[in-house]
Amino acid sequence: MFKFRLNKKDRGSGARTGTLKTTHGIINTPVFMPVGTQGSVKSMSFQDLEKMRIQIILANTYHLYLRPGMDVIKKAGGLHNFCGWKGPILTDSGGYQVFSMSELRKIEKDGVCFRSHLDGSEHFIGPKEAIEIQRVIGSDIAMVFDECTPFPATYDYACNSVSLSVKWAQLCKNFHNSKNQALFGIVQGSVYKDLRIKCAKELVDIDFDGYAIGGLSVGEPDTVMYEIADTVLPYLPEKKPRYLMGCGTPVNIIESVSKGIDMFDCVMPTRNARNGSAFTSRGKINIRNAGYKLDFGPVEQGCGCFACKNYSRAFIRHMIIAGEILGARLLTCHNLHFYNKMMQDIRASVKRGNFCGYKENFLKTYNNKGEE
Amino acid sequence: MFKFRLNKKDRGSGARTGTLKTTHGIINTPVFMPVGTQGSVKSMSFQDLEKMRIQIILANTYHLYLRPGMDVIKKAGGLHNFCGWKGPILTDSGGYQVFSMSELRKIEKDGVCFRSHLDGSEHFIGPKEAIEIQRVIGSDIAMVFDECTPFPATYDYACNSVSLSVKWAQLCKNFHNSKNQALFGIVQGSVYKDLRIKCAKELVDIDFDGYAIGGLSVGEPDTVMYEIADTVLPYLPEKKPRYLMGCGTPVNIIESVSKGIDMFDCVMPTRNARNGSAFTSRGKINIRNAGYKLDFGPVEQGCGCFACKNYSRAFIRHMIIAGEILGARLLTCHNLHFYNKMMQDIRASVKRGNFCGYKENFLKTYNNKGEE
User: Fold this and answer.
1) Of B236, B266, B296, which residue constitutes the final position of a domain?
2) What is the pLDDT of residue A95?
3) How far apart are CA B1 and CA B182, in angstroms?
4) Do residue B68 and residue A39 have CB atoms under 8 angstroms apart?
5) Per-residue pLDDT, B107
6) How high is the ipTM of this complex?
7) Structural domain boundaries, residue B259
8) Looking at per-residue confidence, does B219 or B184 come out higher?
9) Between A42, A82, A311, which is nearest B324 by CB?
10) Does B239 lie in the same domain as B287?
11) Least CA distance to A330: which residue of chain B?
């Protein structure tokens, strides 16, 4: 069922457009995937997302496994049936959360024993379990179970971690036998180029439907993230989709597209929204600022999103400051629209052979420091 | 601009249907007004409310006065422009909140000096200020500034309170000179029938566009609320709308309609929703209950609301337990639909001369105790 087709390559950069065919629909790449950790993209209904033409959402295996639990998802007939989202879903493997959120018990050769961050209950997830859970969830794209190496990590730690992750990746591949679900490998190796290359090569030997670069967007400087992407990408097959996990800011995304990344996910547009931060073509603005108190214009002039067409900065500022849910909804809607529109513009610019011009213009206008 | 027309009176009860003509549209009564305390009905967009055919919303003067503040509302050109809601708005006078939420400084003859519950800043609101604030807000229906007598209150306290409230009501009437805004008086008098009657008579002498019964739904038994309504209603002019402030449960509303009340407001459908409580024709259910974990049916079979048409009990339960905003949105949507549909059904039953049959059926099915 799963098929990636490379449609156009940019002449002046590594940027490319493609189409990802999945069980629940076709995705145009490069694509940004809003994060729906617990089965909803925070504050949005799935009808909102459809109206905004969101192509694919990401859901977190670790969270769904703990709550509502696999009995519920299984009985519902998978996550699509449970939550009502009709489009494609990508699930992470739970590895990242097991290592970052839970009280870690013990890394064993077959997986990790950990305690739930919700109630302290004891669980075990390894490659076999992660694949089984994602099979029950019924995501269109599953990820291998890996150890997300913390940042910073010593060379030795990263080296062992890569070995373990590659071994687990092979086990995931062995256990995975769904025709309706793609399986992506994840390149780890921290900031060590040789480890990254080694990991990429070994994963490509195993042969996955797509490849992610993991362990980035975890606190390292942007330059390091770009360097690692530059290091890894030449070792990934051109005809497979490439996913930079957890990335990023609009600038991070545009830079990474120009290197040849096809897929992105980040909590930034949704989490920032709930804190009152809105993305505009000039950069981020914080709607709480006193300057917007009497500003009855939209968050961004000319923006076609629901929030900008119907509500003012002054009103949204009041909503956010007063702690009203509507404020979070409106800014989430705006920020997701901003990200989605940016990806549309990126794809259009690659198609018409002008990605570098688009990128230059975007970066000239966009203030990456924050407030406009 | 404001005009109330009595359309039909029920033969077997005091129930009646009417139409309220306001600056921002015509309202069919009996009507339930969702509460939009800070300028939004919590978790709903105004477009959601329009789609649900909500006829009128209530906004709280005290809250809007403190935040965003009158400079913002004034500059926006009133609350309608500020928030984007195109239908009618009723504002309370702020009296209830000044007495119940703020740190009270001093009741003076011209009003109340109090400290904001938000930042402790000192403010003064009396009849003159309340009318001025509501003029700036630009609500379609304004309420007089009164002392909402606490429950319980001694006879002497209630007696003095009534005298003060009537004096303030007269001042409000004197200050109020908007053709685009109706002004309602509020009958106080606690549980003392003679005080209630005295207050009603004196307010009717002043002559308002409509009359509210205040100081109820504040913790007294339902029987007391019904008795006070029975006591007061005969003294209110038949051709003016009657509003039972802060009422109530579905059963409270049906009983009060049968006595001749036309207007209702209550935080119950919205606040309960955020706590996981949903209204159904069989009574309230708590969606958190384990019994709904694997229940993939809608909150109420046959319900035409957005939540019931698209989401299951099991999914909404998961959303509420996981603290996801979507859970609050879906149950708010359902509960407001339930209240609105009930009011539609009430109006239809009065029109076809079968309100008592409708009421009997409703009460037979509806479990007022809670869980179905």
Assistant:
1) B266
2) 87
3) 8
4) no
5) 87
6) 0.97
7) 3-266
8) B184
9) A42
10) no
11) B45
What is the per-residue pLDDT for B98?
87
Which chain B residues contact residue A51 at CB under 8 A? none
Of B42, B310, B314, the CB nearest to A325: B42
* A161 and A86 inside one domain: yes
Catalytic annotation present for A92? yes
Task: Let me know whether B262 and B278 are in one domain.
Answer: no
SS3 B109: coil
Which of B67, B293, B322 minimises the CB distance to A38?
A: B322
Q: Among A265, A295, A329, where does a domain finish?
A: A265
Judged against a pLDDT cut of 90, whether residue A254 lies above it is answered with yes
Residues of A in contact with B311 (CB under 8 A): 84
Task: Give yes or no: residues A81 and A206 share one domain.
Answer: yes
Point out which residues pair with B108 in neighbouring strands. Answer: B111
Residues in chain B with CB shorter than 8 Å from the CB of A314 are 68, 72, 76, 82
Count of domains in chain B?
Answer: 2
Judge whether A369 lies within some domain.
Answer: no
Which helix or strand (DSSP H or E) is residue B17 part of? strand B16-22
The fraction of chain B above a pLDDT of 70, given in percent, is: 99
Domain identity same for B225 and B296:
no
Cα-to-chain-centroid distance, residue A216: 12
Inter-chain touch B314–A71, beta carbons under 8 Å: no
Cα–Cα nearest to A50, from A306, A320, A308, A351: A306
Give per-residue pLDDT as tens, A339-359: 999 999 999 999 999 999 999
| Res B220 pLDDT > 50 | yes
What is the reported pTM?
A: 0.97
The pLDDT score that the predictor gives to residue A372 is 45
**Residue B4, helix vs strand vs coil:** strand
Is A355 inside any structural domain?
no
Provide, as residue numbers in chain B, all residues whose Cβ is less than 8 Å from the Cβ of A40.
319, 324-326
